[in-house]
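We were asked to recover a plausible sequence for a given structure. The inputs and outputs are reproduced exactly as logged, with field labels preserved.

PROBLEM: sequence recovery
POSITIONS: 366
GIVEN STRUCTURE:
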């Protein structure tokens, strides 16, 4: 654990319990843990007068990983800022729960800026989506550190977009750019630094690869999944989507409507209206609507699995966020299913002995 810049203040590996990490595609990663409130390694006062463990401190998490030559190294897998601290005490004991988030969380509290660093009228005209994101981070850093750097990052070629932001949060702008058809995926490379820069950000045209050997099976070979949930939700379905963009000159509002005729023929017409108030480009608005429609045609399907420890593929070693891999369910699960699914997130816990266990993998069919 360190100060806001990442300078080490205290080593808390030995006292942290109920440790858990959560990673999601294009969302902030989180780390949570519990410690005894009276332990001097977190309760002693720092030079700023606050306890060593306090909001806005930095937490770093390392994972001991085997290398190709058989040796082990501690690999940095998370760097984040403490956002939530909760102290609980009774007659006999007291403990503190802590949750930290990586730098993407801070973008929810930062606004898009123009070249003059204003926030009221931020316009990008025919600029690649990845370059818009890069520019927004660099402008934000010029008025206050985000914990992110674009230096050394990869910003792959993406479609040109025309956008207009008025007092818009960076996190919302990033999600719009990422979620549009042919958008991008974010990747953070965490940095073991002491200058307040916690991660290098990249925008990839698509994150991940096909992992043919990372196979999961429930009730069927390779029998390495203990629990499975297959959720299909009609509430999310829509086969005609209208997107409402910015208000143009003359008070006309930009709009785009796209229908999935095949889906309409199968399940009937289901309409939805989405608001994209900062979008002034017809092509970008159509891309957002088209991508939304591609996910909504039959309603979203989400598969959540709990892999068996020691038998199933492991995060980072065998797969990562954005990767695709086969998931099979035996016939006892409503006739079962099989297919290639994309990993949208995973959760893992570390017990008091330092043993890691994946508690959930979240995937969805391609």
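RECOVERED SEQUENCE:
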């Amino acid at each position: 654990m360190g100060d806001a810049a990442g300078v080490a203040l205290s080593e808390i590996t030995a006292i942290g319990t109920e440790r858990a990490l959560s990673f999601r595609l294009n969302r902030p990663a989180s780390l949570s843990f519990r410690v005894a409130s009276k332990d001097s390694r977190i309760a002693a006062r720092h030079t700023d007068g606050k306890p060593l463990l306090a909001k806005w401190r930095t937490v770093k998490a390392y994972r001991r990983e085997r290398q190709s030559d058989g040796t082990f190294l501690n690999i940095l897998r998370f760097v984040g800022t403490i956002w939530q601290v909760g102290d609980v005490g009774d007659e006999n004991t007291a403990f503190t729960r802590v949750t930290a988030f990586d730098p993407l969380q801070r973008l929810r509290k930062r606004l898009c800026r123009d070249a003059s660093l204003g926030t009221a009228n931020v316009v990008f005209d025919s600029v690649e989506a990845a370059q818009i994101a890069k520019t927004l981070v660099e402008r934000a850093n010029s008025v206050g550190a985000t914990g992110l750097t674009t230096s050394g990052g990869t910003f792959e070629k993406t479609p040109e977009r025309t956008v207009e932001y008025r007092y818009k949060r960076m996190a919302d702008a990033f999600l719009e750019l990422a979620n549009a058809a042919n958008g991008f995926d974010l990747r953070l490379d965490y940095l073991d630094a002491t200058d307040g820069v916690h991660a290098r950000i990249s925008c990839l045209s698509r994150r991940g690869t096909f992992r043919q050997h990372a196979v999961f099976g429930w009730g069927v070979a390779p029998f390495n999944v203990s629990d499975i949930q297959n959720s299909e939700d009609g509430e999310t379905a829509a086969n005609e989507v209208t997107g409402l963009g910015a208000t143009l000159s003359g008070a006309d509002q930009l709009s785009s409507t796209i229908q999935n005729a095949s889906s309409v023929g199968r399940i009937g017409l289901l309409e939805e209206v989405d608001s994209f108030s900062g979008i002034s480009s017809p092509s970008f608005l159509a891309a957002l609507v088209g991508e939304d429609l591609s996910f909504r045609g039959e309603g979203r399907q989400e598969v959540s699995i709990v892999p068996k420890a020691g038998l199933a593929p492991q995060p980072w070693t065998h797969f990562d966020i954005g990767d695709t891999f086969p998931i099979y369910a035996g016939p006892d699960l409503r006739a079962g299913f099989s297919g290639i699914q994309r990993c949208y997130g995973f959760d893992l816990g570390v017990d008091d002995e330092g043993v890691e266990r994946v508690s959930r993998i979240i995937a969805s069919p391609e």
